[in-house]
From TrEMBL:
Organism: Streptomyces cavernicola
Family matches, as InterPro entries: Lon_prtase_N, Lon_prtase_N_sf, PUA-like_sf
Pfam families: LON_substr_bdg
Superkingdom as given in the UniProt entry: Bacteria
Gene3D superfamilies for this protein: 1.20.58.1480, LON domain-like (2.30.130.40)
Protein name as annotated: LON peptidase substrate-binding domain-containing protein
Domain (Lon N-terminal): residue spans on this chain: 6-227
Length: 249
């Protein structure tokens, strides 16, 4: 087993390989992370600025890390593990994704605007909170296609297009995306997992599927189920399918 040690950025969302993640970085621990990434790989360097993103388990953000979040009167914790309890490893899902921060822009107030892209799934083995920010020992995971991934991808794409049409109709808006969808099975599986309106535990389940075919089978069931639900709803909130979340970390 080969492992790597990278900075760890916990989020209330799931990052998938190939998907873009915009970040608004204002907490000091994550500012320190970005400063170190830029120092190690300046703009004129070809070295990637890699860190790992893991989803926070429901109910495991145990204390406010900044004033006013969520209680304006609360005294925030400080340090790398602030908000994640005495054993941060228990606060995070064990399967995450490496991110490559292609764009890191520091603002005048010291916060950062970051645009990162998911690259490789990883398994979280340990978390170190001794520094200014969390770091983790991670095992990079290969993507196994599984059985019949190609045929499943075709079925998922058809179901996803139908899902998009139903969703647009329920929101009384036109279907705005005219972009060609990919046909490579693993790319299809990650794109659909990111674009579908699903809760974080469901997205996490898709991320940690044992192979591409298993993920696609799960998505086919989810898309058919969600499409049937949408068909019977008079309206839905206007959430843009193609826009990724911006984290306020």
């Amino acid at each position: 087993m080969t492992t790597v040690r990278l900075p760890l950025f916990p989020l209330n969302t799931v990052l998938f390989p190939g998907l873009v993640l915009p970040l608004n970085v204002f907490e000091e621990r994550y500012r320190a992370m970005m400063r170190d990434l830029v120092k190690a790989s300046p703009d004129d360097s070809d070295e990637p600025r890699r860190f790992a993103v893991v989803a926070i388990r429901d109910g495991h953000e145990v204390a406010p890390a900044e004033p006013g979040m969520p209680d304006a009167t609360a005294v925030p914790e400080r340090g790398a593990a602030a908000g994640f309890g005495p054993d941060p490893l228990k606060s995070f899902h064990r399967i995450g994704c490496i991110a490559d921060a292609a764009t890191v822009r520091e603002r005048a107030d010291g916060s950062f605007e970051v645009l990162a892209t998911g690259t490789t799934r990883v398994r979280l083995h340990s978390v170190d909170a001794s520094g200014p920010y969390l770091t983790a020992e991670l095992e990079e995971l290969e993507e196994d296609p599984g059985d019949e991934a190609g045929a499943l991808a075709e079925g998922v794409l058809r179901a996803f297009r139908n899902y998009q049409k139903r969703l647009a109709g329920a929101r009384e808006r036109s279907l705005s995306t005219g972009a060609e969808l990919p046909d490579e099975p693993s790319v299809v599986s990650y794109l659909v997992a990111a674009a579908a309106v699903l809760d974080t535990p469901t997205k996490q389940r898709l991320l940690q599927a044992p192979d591409t075919a298993s993920r696609l089978r799960d998505e086919l069931k989810l898309l058919r189920s969600e499409t049937a639900v949408i068909r019977n709803l008079p309206s839905l909130p206007a959430v843009d399918l193609t826009r990724g979340p911006t984290s306020m970390n």
